[in-house]
């Protein structure tokens, strides 16, 4: 910029002030520097793809650390140890981090890639780096703190000692400290390897406070865990457990907490899914925690903290079902009171006190609230419940309730009938008042019959807009998911007669289905279950199960299983089975092929492995010689095995030094009306000798002829017809021969086996994807060798020697081997995902998939290839399956109403919202909405709407007047009488939320 005189004759700069911005990507060189996110220190925004390249002088490596890091949880920064994204991954970071030191690079180059999504924004990151020497005689290589831990101390000089410790909840594996030492005639190095921090599966804890994490935290925990933590504190102290994070697979993965030293103590709770209290308190100085996970997927796990608390208070009393607790102090001598909800009666002590002593206990157990059989009810409002509600009422009861109100009072129904109990299912939502909705869902294995959402209607009577639905075990259906349950029709009751039910169980492609009978009690023989490995009854049958002795397990090789249950007219029974999906990995061996030899590496056929067939001499291969273990519709060897047949060619040319000629269909009888011919040509300085090993034909009419030349115009050496048992031989005068066979329409016999040879071993062929090395015309003792191309392995013998046979002719003692492509093995599947493997010629292809509710973070990483160096193209680093989220509903406004979350987190797949209206309004449009697997809410164009409730119009009264014309919720009608008349009834009536007018009808009577 230059200071110049402008048009106003005043000095000014000739250009505007520049700005410095952090770009999206770039190249940095030099010994020190920094890398910033786009727009830093402002927020980054919008969909971008930023690649940063960092280079320092040769002979140095890069030391880098973040002074600031904050991204959206779905935006990842990937750091690679080299000049491109094909280099090893140093780390992938997301979210908010404190100061983070990266591992040293192995070279002088580093690559960073940042690709935020279009709808995310955050402040980003600030990374600083510098060049450091690889090592020296007086200085060790820089090291970083272990993940989930800290490094204690600094410096790299010889004699320096650095210590390590882990974050709370993690355990150090390896050395607690390392020291930089010198080595004779070598560079300085640390005396031990760097430790790591991991979460232990259980342990004995005696500190006054501590942390308990699920194994693998903050990642997902593993399958089949059984972890036990025992917390023991000094006597006089109790244990308070605080839950900071908790997310396990609902029902299947459970955390049990016991108030004592083992599982025989009082259980304080068993927690699964995401429903867990914030605090759990013991009544003694010991706490026993047991976490169990099943064989299927893990989730985010848990983060717990415990602290010692003085046992100066009693534990909070158990929640009073159908009642309330009064009082929130639980110190010694404090008193807590209990009251029951309307319709229930208190049984037990209404007041309990926290007793003094070495252990805090209440002087009485908390009472219970019970629905009684009959009674006298007073008051302006109340509830009547069946005995023992919400459970089932007893048999043989006769109950009377006497309702006594003040004179002139009536009663008004406030709530719709309670749907509980709801057998074989559960109800989402708890409101049964006017305008409130309930959602009904069934347990696994049951189907919902009826409407899934019911709304309590307004009006004169309280009723739901649809009858209560039912959850029944259906007779057949389509069942999907990674695991599930199938019950007999009508379960848990016995199935009816004459049932014919079909279930199609489907899991994601690339998986098989394991079925286990947990209950089987059917009429033997007559009532049975048939299971097929595929979608129809033409598939392979896995078995037939009947009676009560077949509590077996079966596994399919496809991702479909068809199950059919049939019962007759007589006695019933029941059954229950569970299933889960498992990754398909191995093929079954193909069936043998007649007249063929099989070449395979071993009997354990994994995906990508091959089987090669070689027909025995004299037979022709029809079909594919190589089968590959592939995952198509199911896991199998493809294509189908070939066949080896003795064919009937026309002038088939044979140039090998020895061979066998067979009659058509040998060793079976030859067909009728056949005309076949073969031409045998060997090296010019040799003749051909024929050996007849067996011969049976119809005399005179079916004949084999051998000519001393390439066609029938040459002299005939032999003509064979009829039966010949003694070995015969014929020799040509030159290197050529013509063999001719003809059969008529009459008798058919076994035919012939004819062997021919010359006085040498011709060079055998090379296998596909291989080569052969040896003399073109081998003599006795000559050797040939076979080799395969890179990426292929030789199956069979690698060498063959020219030897003399029992008949005196020369032949190789080994057949041509096979060169089979080498599999890269089964790679790791993504977390919350799976793999589908197929085979394309010699290159195996993987397709990565994500489980329902997840999708690939980078769709371009959906496939990987097995290269000939036996390495996967993706470096065995599976892509990331990120959680699918629906749009935030924070901006959605329902006038005169709102929405509440029934289950889920609010945006994750499967989250369910129910809409409601304020008193005085009713709902139209969709009542619930689900977050679908596509990341959208389940409603269509129609949106929920709250409309004001109206009352019927009140008529005018004779000899008076009505003031007010509105009839909507909250409106009032005022009645007045003419002079000389007196008003009876209610003067001011209001339109209520129920759609009814308050008060009684008015009228005017003469004074």
UniProtKB/TrEMBL annotation:
Keyword Signal among record annotations: yes
Boundaries of every Sushi domain copy: 138-199, 312-371, 414-473, 585-646, 759-821, 822-883, 884-948, 949-1006
Pfam families noted in UniProt: CUB, Sushi
Residue ranges annotated for the CUB domain, each copy included: 24-132, 201-309, 373-413, 475-586, 648-759
PROSITE patterns (alphabetical): CUB, SUSHI
Cited CDD domains: CCP (cd00033), CUB (cd00041)
Keywords, in A-Z order: Disulfide bond, Repeat, Signal, Sushi
Disulfide bonds listed in the record: 977-1004
InterPro entries: CUB_dom, SEZ6_CSMD_C4BPB_Regulators, Sperma_CUB_dom_sf, Sushi/SCR/CCP_sf, Sushi_SCR_CCP_dom
Protein name (Swiss-Prot/TrEMBL): Uncharacterized protein
